[in-house]
Amino acid sequence: MTYTQIIAKLKSLENKNNVAGMARFGIDPKNAKALGIPLPVLRAMAKTITPDHVLAGKLWASRIHEAKLLAGMVDEKDKVTEKQLESMALDFDTWDITDQTCDNLISDSKYACEKAVEWAYRKEEFVRRAGFTLMAMIGWYGKGCSDKQIMAFLPVIEKYSTDERNFVKKAVNWALRNIGKGSTMAFHDAALRSARRLEKSDSKSARWIAKDAIRELVSPKIIKRIREREDRKAKLLSQKPKDKS
User: Fold this and answer.
1) Residue 186: per-residue pLDDT
2) pLDDT (tens digit, 9 = 90+) per residue, 113-144?
3) 111-236 classified as CATH 1.25.40.290
């Protein structure tokens, strides 16, 4: 589909009832230029579009909420540039645009680890959220960054746990929990230590983040799952043929 065809298709799917309901989920439809198209519909539509970096750029530039969501799904990850990501970050205006773009595009780019930290230090609410959203995704999937880089996220999480803004606070909490639930007990234990420190903070936001994270990280079910992951990984490594050279 061409850009014109995609925009026409999106407009034909406009659902004003859904648009009216978006505010209940923290999305201002007026600011977002939203059409009210459900995410599963957009994902299905993305599968019919050949990945195209130039097309994705045009979709993002349309400023239509659903077109921006679609842009992250159809861009070519190997063609993403740092300049493009910085420009996109300034356009983050809702939590779903932020999270979906991080998930569908940025977390798989070569800039993910770098931007996770850089954006966390930024003052803009949704740019900072993007930084911690990337940390959450990297922490959970454990790909694209070294163990040392992931561990280095924890001091940043602690630093900004005092940000009371709702969309930031929730992303910081998400990052801490996902690192703690990641692929090793080393991550779990380090995240739990961070949470224990935050538990003693004077900040209401930090204490909420800590309480929520600790409740999940001390769960026997979570600990069992991490250990099973470690066991599977160790088994796979032991089965790899040894280099005889």
Assistant:
1) 94
2) 999 999 999 999 999 999 999 999 999 987 78
3) yes
Residue 199 near residue 210, CB atoms below 8 Å: yes
Annotated domain spans of the chain: 1-110, 111-236
Instruction: State if pTM tops 0.70.
Output: yes
Q: Count CA atoms closer than 13 A to 3's CA, side-chain side.
A: 15
Residue 124 is given by DSSP the state S
DSSP string across 221-237: HHHHHHHHHHHHHHHHH
Alpha carbon of 240 to those of 141, 226, 235, 244: distances in Å? 22, 22, 9, 12
Of the candidates 142, 116, 145, 112, which has an alpha carbon nearest to the alpha carbon of residue 128? 116
- Of 191, 188, 209, the closest CA to residue 200 belongs to 209
Helix axes 3-12, 65-74, angle to 10 degrees: 130
Q: How would DSSP label each residue in 47-83?
A: TTS---HHHHHHHHHT--HHHHHHHHHHS-GGG--HH
* Whole-angstrom distance, CA of residue 133 vs CA of residue 153: 12
